[in-house]
Fold these 3 entries.
Entry 1:
Amino acid sequence: MLERRILILVAALVVLLASAALWNAFVRRPARASASATPDTASVESVVRTAGPAVDSAPDTARAAAQPAPAPAPTVVPPVGAGGPSYIVLLARSEIRRRIRASAGSTYLSDIVAGSTDSILHRWDGRVSTPVRVFFPPTTVANFQPSFLDAVRSAFQRWQEAGVPVRFNLDADSSSAEVRVQWRIQFEGERSGQTDLQWDEDGHLTGGVVTLATFDAKGQPFAPDDVRVLALHEIGHLLGLDHSPDAGDIMYAQPKVRDLSPRDIRTASLLYDLAPGPLRVGS
Ligand SMILES: [Zn+2]
């Protein structure tokens, strides 16, 4: 009697185990396969993979390992390591480089980028509602005239009226100022002005010092209108521009013209249309 009960129990157990095995083999496995075959929908990577530039040619190894053998990708994107720029950032930089290239001729921003050592766009950000605070320290430099200050103020005004989206508060005090405009008698060589800039890691300008000479390289005293031209050039630097290769622009290294050219204005306008920061793929 007891043996028969044990037999029935063992038989029931065998049936149960067999059923479980069958369930695993024919019911659960196909379900699991269909789940893993479901493609990831609209991931960021796949968007960039389609739109990404052909130059970004390193294989996406991290993604290949995580997915079950996908069809060969038509284009591939660079690996994005810990701390590297995201795909969206790389795509944005690629678009900025394209716009700069497309503007060659009508602006000199491509010359500026080609000539720069760091390929970083620097500019002020959001400074229409909160103007950049500029301080003019008192000076006793030889040949300094109060009318020089009016000349510099009119140069700031000229850039503002040109449509660049930066405003300047020219009445800031020394403690709150972000920019100082100072004077010296002469520079060495042909130079008559200098602008030193500071910026943060995103390429946003945070401060600057503009230094203007009161005598030219030959020792001749500058007149107020010469100072206005010098200031136009240095304020171009203060806005984030570098030199133009064309003598028709105020940003030519040794200015020959006495006002902003249409190309100066277009170049500054384009700079302020683009996000500041690095333009290289890997930085
Ligand atoms: Zn210059």
Entry 2:
Amino acid sequence: MSSDGNTDFWTRKRVIVTGGTGFLGSHIVDSLKRLRATVLVPRSSEYNLVKMDDALRCFQGFKPDVVIHSAAYYGGLGFNQLYPGKIFYENLVMGANVMEATRLAGAERFVGIGTACSYPGYLEGELKEQDLWDGPPHESVINYGLTKKMMAIQGWAYKKQYGFKSIHLILTNLYGPRDTFHIERAHVVSALIKKFVDAKLRNEPEVEVWGTGKPVREFLYVEDCAEAILLAAEHYEDTMPLNLGCGQGTSIRELVELVQELTGYQGNIVWNTSKPDGQLKKILDVTRMKQALRWTPPTELPVGLKQTIGWYSANKNEADLRR
Ligand SMILES: NC(=O)c1ccc[n+]([C@@H]2O[C@H](COP(=O)([O-])OP(=O)(O)OC[C@H]3O[C@@H](n4cnc5c(N)ncnc54)[C@H](OP(=O)(O)O)[C@@H]3O)[C@@H](O)[C@H]2O)c1
């Protein structure tokens, strides 16, 4: 058993991490290297995984034991409104190609990285895995959420016909070092951190935030998420998708006040209540995660936020440009 609770399952395993230079993927790669796995990260410039020939060339050359599919083409709500067709096509085809290439390369298992955007749009509160198929995702993310869910069906069908082993993990909102801070693609935590850090640097008297602050969301620290993914890859075998989250709701107001305090910004917060709030509460039910992995995320929100603010402040120029 290593210090972070893993067995020697990963030692000398050959692992392909698609999207392994991205925000989440880079933390998965760091964890795998610590566990002494041999890792290949296919860059899109060399292996465009939307093209089956590229996927086959990569996978048959490397002969992985395990494939973790973290690559995706996506962004926040604005990005989704700008590129809905490309988001649909690239994620659908990439998921299908990567799982098929994994099977043809004779790998022992496939780990699909999914999203809470796959849950039915009308659902609020704590989302349970058995509710995943109870309706279409919210129309603002249906083109993205559905493509991710298709991986779970592909895995189910491949198990039935080929005895192929795959799991599908449904991730909540992530935050942490190396997140995307670019204005076009940032999610709520990185967008807020950027706003407050910038306002402090420029001595701005106020920061405007949208909505009332009442909606409750959940935020999982990226290093914890990488740890959970490796535990699930090792211990979870069911074709039923598995939620990965912290199971703890935080209101947007609490989040904003925490970010203000941790960035040391002294100005005022202006709530623009003419902007929509979205659903009141959306968090993942993590009962099955806790049972299956015997694990709960160790990083408390203020600790994770502090790390993220520190990382952003130290890497601001580069982080502002990375899309
Ligand atoms: N971040 C979150 O809050 C969150 C929440 C829920 C689920 N997720 C899921 O977690 C996964 C990782 O998200 P992330 O935020 O880490 O993404 P990210 O930082 O945007 O990274 C995406 C990666 O995908 C790769 N990629 C995109 N198109 C590709 C293609 N055609 N061929 C090969 N590689 C391609 C990119 O590689 P190159 O640099 O080589 O182009 C990039 O490294 C995604 O599946 C996402 O749906 C994320």
Entry 3:
Amino acid sequence: MPGESERRQLDELGYLVLPGFVPSPMLAELRERVEMLWAQEGSEAGSEFRHEPGARRLANLVDKGAIFADIVAMPEILECIEHVIGPGYKLSSLNARSTNPNNAESQPWHADSGAIADERGYWVCNSLWMLDDFTPENGATRMVPRSHTWRRLPEAGNTGSLPGEELVTGEAGTVVVMNAHMWHGGTANRTGRCRRALHAFYTRNDKPQQQYQKGLLRPETIAALTPLQRRVLAIDDAENDRLSAATTRMSGFLK
Ligand SMILES: O=C(O)CCC(=O)C(=O)O
């Protein structure tokens, strides 16, 4: 359970850094698995979500290895998600993003899903799993603390500096939970090595999933899920079927 000061940091700043969260064997397996998938999927990698110039992406990861179903249902992370969104939340997507070596472009500032908090409060929360050290040179994520409280979006396409921005650095194995209404974005990578991360992204139950898990997961993946994983993935949630199936089908992602 996050303590009082962690909860306050999430509330006030909009993010919480959990150093050393991922045990070394799990970190090694995650790195191995994402590299294998990038090799296997080639130019199709990320296509269930989107391609991004200057970065490799993977999407629909829960269907691509049992370890991924484990990481979206980690009780300590879920407690943080619940603190931000409330008890009615679900996974929206699990993606990987690797900033390419010598990628000169920072991502535009954004809130995930272009989400603005509504009358019920916050409805998106992300967890960023560092698979490599995040350093000032290699494309660490920048954030504007407290911007989740402003209830507006940054100017579209802006990649410049913003007052009060902070770069979130940390060692591989760190997880950063962030209120995804907070303005943020990946930065340029000035090194010769990639910078890899997973994004386990959650949303409130009354919103569609970014990737409709029940439609994308193979029957054997669904059959192997624990009760907690089924709940987090909204497998037995008829309201989610109604909300999310249409968006996923429209995007052409449904298998
Ligand atoms: O990987 C990162 O540093 C952040 C990426 C991000 O914010 C996004 O792709 O929406």
